[in-house]
Design brief:
The chain is an all-alpha fold. The protein has 9 helices and no strands. Bound molecules: fe (ii) ion (FE2) (2 copies).
Length: about 190
């Protein structure tokens, strides 16, 4: 399998036109890199799994995690990679359970980055840098805020990871703070070229 970020970005662009989906893929992937680094895992691999996890969602929302298999297979991603990608839709659009630590992180941060991103956009700075755990906890508890982001899934993710929900929130916020610059830079380059 040719694991190459440039190739993965080209594939993301091929299947996604909406800026939101491109930003989401980059964000989830970059946050996963933070968690990979923490335990000395393969940073690039985790980042690309995250980048491509919703590859089929914009074009095939009804077949999410089904079309992904086809798309990724025809682009030479191997079964292990594909399984990790579709495990994020466990019990929603796939029956592949997140088993590896990396898959559990993907499952957890997918929805959680959505809440934190929405919260950042409410702030004058539009940035993660001046956010703290307390404000994230408040948004997490407020079910009407970013209500498309499933709190249940995030809680399940923390259970799978066997960590307290507050630890997951805190680490994910730290990951976004650390990766904000690179997320924005990469996003701007991609969007400018569409
Ligand atoms: Fe998804
Ligand atoms: Fe997603």
């Amino acid at each position: 399998m040719d694991l190459n970020r440039k190739k993965a970005i080209n594939l993301l662009r091929e299947y996604n036109e909406e800026d939101f989906h491109i930003l989401h893929g980059i964000t989830v992937g970059r946050v996963m890199e933070y968690f990979a680094k923490e335990i000395n895992e393969d940073i690039e691999y985790w980042g690309i799994v995250g980048l491509l996890h919703d590859i089929d969602f914009e074009k095939y929302p009804e077949e999410h995690c089904v079309k992904a298999v086809e798309i990724l297979r025809s682009n030479d991603y191997d079964n292990e990679f594909i399984n990790s990608v579709i495990s994020h839709g466990y019990q929603i659009c796939s029956n592949v359970e997140p088993k590896k630590y990396m898959e559990k992180i993907l499952y957890s941060v997918d929805e959680l980055t959505g809440i934190i991103n929405a919260a950042s956009l409410m702030r004058p700075s539009k940035s993660y840098q001046d956010m703290n755990l307390k404000s994230i906890k408040k948004k997490f508890k407020d079910k009407s805020f970013a209500k498309g982001c499933s709190r249940e899934t995030i809680k399940n993710g923390a259970d799978m990871l066997e960590i307290e929900i507050d630890i997951l929130l805190d680490k994910t916020l730290n990951a976004l703070k650390e990766k904000e610059k690179i997320i924005n830079e990469e996003y701007n380059v991609i969007v400018d070229h569409i």
